[in-house]
Every structure is written in C-alpha cells, then in structure tokens.
Amino acid sequence: MLENPRRPSPDPAHPGIRPAAGAADGTPTPRRRTAPARGRRLGRLAALSGAALLLAACAAHPASVLHPQGAAARMEYRLFDFSLIIMTGVFLSVIIPLTYVILRYRQRSAAQPLPKQVEGSHFLEMLWTVVPIVLLIALAVPTVGDAFRLAAPAGPEALQVTVIGHQWWWEFRYPSLGIVTADEMHIPAGQRVELTLESADVLHSFWVPSLAGKEDTVPGQPNSMWLEADHPGTYPGQCAEFCGLSHSLMRFFVVAQTPSGFAAWVHGMQHPVTTPQTPLAAQGLSIFNQYGCGGCHTIDGTAAQGTVGPNLTGLGNRAVVVAGALQNNAADLSQWIHDPNAIIPGTVMPAFQGLSPTQMQALTAYLEGLK
Ligand code: CUA
Fold this sequence. Notes:
Blueprint: H1 35-58, H2 71-104, H3 122-151, E1 159-166, E2 169-174, E3 179-182, E4 184-188, E5 193-199, E6 204-206, E7 215-217, E8 223-227, E9 233-238, E10 251-257, H4 259-270, H5 279-290, E11 320-321, E12 326-327, H6 330-338, H7 340-343, H8 357-368
Parallel strand pairs: 1-5, 4-10
Antiparallel strand pairs: 1-2, 2-3, 5-8, 6-7, 9-10, 11-12
Helix pairs in contact: 2-3, 5-8, 6-8
Bound molecules: dinuclear copper ion.
Residues 165, 168, 204, 239, 241-243, 247, 250 line the site of dinuclear copper ion.
C-alpha cells in the first residue's frame, strides 16, 4: 500500500543516464553533487538511521528474537548466541590467516619466485577435518536437545489454545474455557500455553518473535508448540508464511495478563454483554440482522452463529480489529465495513456501501457495545 519513497524511478527526460557515482542505493540523483551537499545528505541519512534505531528501542516488547520474553524464546535465543560465537570463531580463524597470507606473500615484482608450496601435510588435513566435526557436534547436541524440549507436551498445567490461520486473520479457541476470539490471544503471564495450530485454508505460519519460534499451520495437519510470556504485556505476532495477497497484513497480538487479569478476561468472555445498551445500539442490532451479518460472524449468546469471519464476542474490549490493521473505534470500523478491500485486499468480507452514515453510526455503536 505504501509507496517506497526510495525506489529509484527512471528519469523520463534522460532515459539513458545512470545514477551518479556514490548513489549506491540507486536513488536518482543530480549528476553533479558537490562535496558539502553529499556531506549534508550523509548527515541526514545518519540522523534518520539514528532516530529509527532509537524509536525501535522504545517499543516495550519489540517483535524481535533478540529480545526473548519467555522460556521458549530464551531457549532459541541461547542457541542463536552459541552458534554466533562458534561462527564468529570460524570466520576469524579463516579471515585472519587469509589476510595475513594475502599481504605477506603478495607478488611484489614479476621476477619474484613462488613462495614455498605446502601440500600433503597430515597435520593440516587432520586439523580441518576434525575441527569442523567437533564444531558440528557441539552445535548439534544443544540444537537437538532444544528441538525435543520444544516439541515435548507442555504438561497438564498448560492452558490449551487452538490457533487457526485464515486468509487473513487469526482465530483463537480456548476449548476448555468455551471461548472463541480473533486478533488478540490472551494468555496468563508466567504459565505455559500449549498451542494446537490449524489452518482453515492455506499454509500460514504462526510467529510471535519475542515469545517463540515459527510454526506452520497446515490444512488437515494439526501442529503443536508451546510458549510462555514471563511478564504481562502485548507481544506482536505476524504470519510468517506467504499466504496470498494480504499475507503481510496478517498480524495479531499476544496479550499476556496477570493471573487475575486473565481470569477477569475469561469471565468477561464467558458472560458477554450482548444486548444493546443504548437506543442507537439497538438500532445497530436490527441493521446487523437486516444485513445478515450473523451469516458470517458469531456473537456468543445471540442468533448470530456464522463461522466464516471472526467471532465478534467481546469485540468492544479489543485494542485492535481486522488483524491489527485498524484500531478499535467507530471511525476505523466504519471504514472497514464500508470498503474492506481497501484495508485487506482480497478479503472475503463484502463491502456494505449502501449503509447511510446514520445506519453506520448505529451499527458501530452496537459492535463497540459488545463487551
Ligand atoms: Cu497467513 Cu501469511
């Protein structure tokens, strides 16, 4: 949706002209750039990069495997760290002698003879056969161990959640609690959560970078994994497998709560407010019924029992809607209902452009009132 402002565009006036030297990123630049101008440009670039880094550091729980926030993510991060140390060692043990040899034995004149050739050294042959074997074993032992630990059942204490990938949103079912929701997966912090991963259509991949590694959702083949969040917070997640037009918009959030906060959320979801609390919302309910919204959406405790789209029970309590593409407020909801394709290209949600502003206001009042 966003144009890349840095994408090089051909210059129609000078089709054959290549970007000036120094524009390594291909940005079209004037052919002659003075030194101070280049300096200013570099300065601006440095300032921008610095600002971006600072802003990235501001996020409480960035979607990064480098900031593990739970047991599973930490296990994977340690493996990453360990391999990085080994790889750095390998890199340096190759690059340092290589640099030395290049400098020390470079040809200084055409008459210079070849340096002494070393071949058939048993010691060297053994060294570069045995060392990689030892390194691979050192990497394999913890990797296989962690793979088994991550695949092991999370235990009877674990909360069970079924995650279902849809084009392009995430559904979360809590079979033992009788709850179905979308976009936000609520979990208790400090407790293991065992996920059963399924797909309603194509391959997706469930990924919450700061809580655990990726796991595919495969049609007809349930997968499982567990994760845990150390502390309450909101952890961004993203579909990590190309799944069609709006793959990149298939986001979600894991909301980890204190045990009491989670219990309150569960109670709220099990006893949802479904009757309109205002005359406007009551009018919205009749529009909801008139347009057959319940054919695709479920609202627990009402006649709406559709399963094509997200379950809307407790919608008013969510921070985000539409897979995190929109905030949960009347304006954003109206925009979605009016033209869903403008937000999530290719979505099966039909557009309701015939609704008058007053009708839309009533409908969103009803939806926002679902607490
Ligand atoms: Cu679902 Cu990509």
